[in-house]
Amino acid sequence: MSGRNWGQFTAAARPNEKCIAIDLFDDQEKNLDHSGKGSLSIFTKHIDDYVPHLKSQITAISADSLSIIPTTIRDRLSSSGARLFSVDGGHTVKHVMNDMALAQELIVPGGVILLDDFLGPHWPSVSEGLFEFLRIANRRLAPFLTFQNKLFLTTYSEHPQIIAQTRKLLDRDLGTEIYTSKWRYAEIGEHKVLCFA
């Protein structure tokens, strides 16, 4: 994930919360699918430029996420889990399944997971990885929104409330656009999902 986009996510952090970025950064020879071009210096510069007040709350870990286990992240969090978890790492099926499993273990009830490049024409392996995760490993996640190239998921028990709140916000902010053919409900993995086309 680019430092600028990551800065937008960290801006949602509360004063007592920690933000963790896991990326290969400068170790790009391990980037088997060439899905990004990480740079720790650029990442750090973006943090300095866009969210300098959060610098003390941010930890960068240079690693392939396949080498990460939930306790590696949980030990660095200031709470019992993550409220927001962005999955935008390796785009192989194996990476997506692994990263979704990490998110599943770390997300708090009602938290939100964002899966980048879902249904993206250049990265069909992301969608394949997500559907394989839902088929064999999912215990507690339910998708509730697709918007452009992102799939948003929350915890299963909170899904009805989150999708209702999302619709209420969209009704307020989009007005009549929400009633056009650009928006519709569909199902992904037997879960009701609000979709934008």
Description:
This protein is α/β, with parallel strands linked by helices. It has a single domain (3-196), classed as Rossmann fold. The protein has six helices and eight strands. The protein has helices at 3-10, 40-50, 70-74, 93-106, 124-136, 159-174, and strands at 19-23, 58-62, 82-87, 107-116, 141-147, 150-155, 183-188, 191-196. Strand 3 (82-87), helix 4 (93-106) and strand 4 form a beta-alpha-beta unit. Pfam families: Methyltransf_24 (PF13578). This is Class I SAM-dependent methyltransferase.
How are the elements arranged and paired?
Blueprint: H1 3-10, E1 19-23, H2 40-50, E2 58-62, H3 70-74, E3 82-87, H4 93-106, E4 107-116, H5 124-136, E5 141-147, E6 150-155, H6 159-174, E7 183-188, E8 191-196
Parallel strand pairs: 1-2, 3-4, 5-8
Antiparallel strand pairs: 4-6, 5-6, 7-8
Helix pairs in contact: 1-2, 4-5
Features:
single chain, 197 residues, alpha/beta, Rossmann fold, 6-stranded mixed sheet, two-stranded parallel sheet, 26% strand, globular
Please sum up the structure shown.
By secondary structure, the chain is an alpha/beta fold. Helices cover 34% and strands 26% of the residues. Strand 1, helix 2 (40-50) and strand 2 form a beta-alpha-beta unit.
| Average residue-wise pLDDT | 87
CATH architecture assignment: 3-Layer(aba) Sandwich
Shape by Cα distribution: globular
Q: For this structure, what is the CATH class?
A: Alpha Beta
Indicate the structural class: alpha/beta
Give the total of domains.
1
User: What's the total number of strands?
Assistant: 8
Q: Strand content of the residues, in percent?
A: 25-35%
Order of helices and strands: HEHEHEHEHEEHEE
What's the end-to-end separation, in Å?
Answer: 23 Å
Spatial order of the strands forming the largest sheet:
3-4-6-5-8-7
Sheet with the most strands, sense and barrel status: 6 strands, mixed
Q: The CATH topology, please? A: Rossmann fold
Our count of helices gives 6
Radius of gyration: 17 Å
The percentage helix is 25-40%
